[in-house]
Amino acid sequence: MSVKIIATTPYEDQKPGTSGLRKRVVHFQQPNYVENFIQSLFDSLPEKQGKTLVIGGDGRYFNDTVIQIAIRMAAANGFGRVLVGQGGILSTPGASHVIRHYGAFGGIVLSASHNPGGPDGDFGIKYNASNGGPAPERITDAVYARSRVITEYKSADTPDVDLSRKGIQHVEGMIVEVIDPVADYAALMETLFDFDAIAAMFKTGFRMRFDAMHAVTGPYAKAIIEGHLGAPDGTVINAVPLPDFGGGHPDPNLVYAKDLYDLMMGPDAPDFGAASDGDGDRNLVIGRGRFVTPSDSLAILAANAHLAPGYAKGIAGIARSMPTSAAADRVAEKLGIEMHETPTGWKFFGNLLDAGRVTICGEESAGTGSDHVREKDGLWAVLLWLNIIARRGAGVDEIVREHWATYGRNYYSRHDYEEVDSETANRLMADLRAKLPALLADGFGGREIVLADDFTYHDPVDGSTSASQGVRIGFADGSRIVFRLSGTGTVGATLRIYLERYEAPGGDHERETQEALADLVALAESVAEIGARTGRAAPSVIT
Ligand code: G1P
Ligand code: ZN
Fold first, then answer.
1. Domains and CATH numbers, the chain
2. Residue nearest to atom 11 of ligand 1 (CA)
3. What pLDDT shows up at residue 18?
4. From the alpha carbon of 346, which atom of ligand 1 is closest?
5. Ligand 1 atom 4, closest CA
6. Fewest CB within a 10 Å sphere: which of 87, 332, 444, 536?
7. pTM for this predicted structure
8. Among residues of the chain, what percentage have pLDDT more than 70?
9. Which region holds residue 497: left if phi is over 0, alpha if psi is between -120 and 50, else beta?
């Protein structure tokens, strides 16, 4: 066996963030940077000998290089088998399913999600455990600790695996099986949704546009929407994954998916518009003339999930990340099911899903998913919407309005200040935290404050605690402002401000969102002194 043990020196900055280790490509290209991280990961995983590891990524620049490195290191570290997506492709939810379906030990997913790609773009490495979900903090903490003291890594001295060829190859004693990235996932979707009803809808002229943004969902969406469901050719656009996402920013929000938004608001809008991100776990849903906020989408999907065969028996509970609007809470209350509020990041849903306490989860950042995998799943959300539309025989706008009429509307928006100086951002948050007791006691801007804290999560399943997960300021009328710093950025700090105001059934649900939230925006500005501290007059992105 040609296993080589190669000496290396540690890097200080390999701490995984909200979603794995994410840095600029050039940062990953430093000598042994990738190898150090992967070896630190393998060193933190006992009992991997002879086991199966899944490897795949979103097709971005550097994906192929790192897949070959990971395969050689997996062989040298004693894995028995690697399952890798053809062409190195596996969406994040697709990888989660493959791990679960084949009972794998875990998986490495190479992605920087919705961040731009290409030689000057971003790259990332995530590890998912045997439940198919993002590694819990106990693993990521161990990897980080290991990365700071690593002195050597192991690799097999073998040629590249041919990733274009499906079937079995060997790397030293290890089996490498190149699998169709789409087939197993499509089969899973077919068990969850009423494909016949959706196909019948397309047959009678239902028009849809799915923008895959030159990212990983392209092959999945083409096979399922145009293949299985019979939507006309051309329904899925930008379907070929490109290393630089065609120069675009594969984030399906109103800024980067503006063409889709404009189409859906225009005179010739199709019935349904959707998009997904770099690695296929996010979704954007827009009806003709109606954008659906991700928070509303979570609530509406949960309220209507029983219309899909996979959820016909009802859902056990709902979980949402703390900054996500409380729209879903009202659905859970009505259904009489459990509702959980977790920190930002999908990894916090894993225990609740594994324990069967929740079925549907979501985040305001365009992430929705269920217990079918342990990741958020963009295409799943789109298919559930299609299933609901087909079964209700109603359009998106009608479904949304009816939802608000029943449950009330949570006006909601997120304002991001990107690439703020890290020290400035940290000081802003620290000063804000220091003000919280006084805010609670005295109110602010003439308004009573009923909640002012830095969110701490107590996991009800494993008893673990996660502190400092975001500053919450809650007003007596149910309005809320949340401040937190992003854990996925690669340059400086991103300050996220989440704004929410509830309008009960019978209230005015037709106001423009930013206008409806204007007083909260002003309060957020004055309490955190954003302009004065950052020098920014306005957010960089509003979603
Ligand atoms: C962002 C989103 C978060 C999501 C994560 C990974 O994290 O806010 O909801 O889980 O990306 O897609 P953040 O940059 O806010 O830490
Ligand atoms: Zn993503």
1. 3-180 (3.40.120.10), 185-407 (3.40.120.10), 410-542 (3.30.310.50)
2. 488
3. 74
4. 10
5. 345
6. 536
7. 0.94
8. 100
9. beta
